[in-house]
Amino acid sequence: MIASILSILVCAYGLAGIHYEHDLHLKINAGFLLVCFVLSLIATCLLLDYSTTNSSLQPIIRKSMRDLISNSQHDYDAKILRQLQEAIGCCGADGPNDYTHLLKPLPSECRDTVTGNAFFHGCVEELTWFFEFKSMGIGFLGMSLGMFNVSI
């Protein structure tokens, strides 16, 4: 949202510089475009850093999943856990052993509906792979838009 507003303001300032034919305004606009490109680059790097394998997001997901498993006797936590494991096709934070370590029974959502085998990968890995794939597309889009703004 902020990036969009900033982009609109930079474009409006550039159009005003073109309309009034002021060299100073056009140079300031070029500086603004450079700043927007650098901010886009920084935002893309942060997005890719915090949403990939071995990022700082993984411990947060791991703690959240273990909390949900520990509190699975409550309806709200059990519902979130069921939906998450069923939709993603994962089991526990790091695999089915999380249930064993917490002395909880392995739920049916942790099993493949066809074979009945427990899912091998935990939700931390599956969610990280999901975020990594999505963030690559968003990062590519951000970098492309930044390059497009600078090149025009």
TrEMBL record:
Transmembrane segment boundaries: 26-48
Main location: membrane
Species per Swiss-Prot/TrEMBL record: Trichogramma brassicae
Protein name as it appears in the record: Tetraspanin
GO annotations of cellular component type: membrane
Subcellular location: Membrane
Keywords: Membrane, Transmembrane, Transmembrane helix
Membrane topology of this protein: Multi-pass membrane protein
Superkingdom: Eukaryota
Pfam families, alphabetized: Tetraspanin
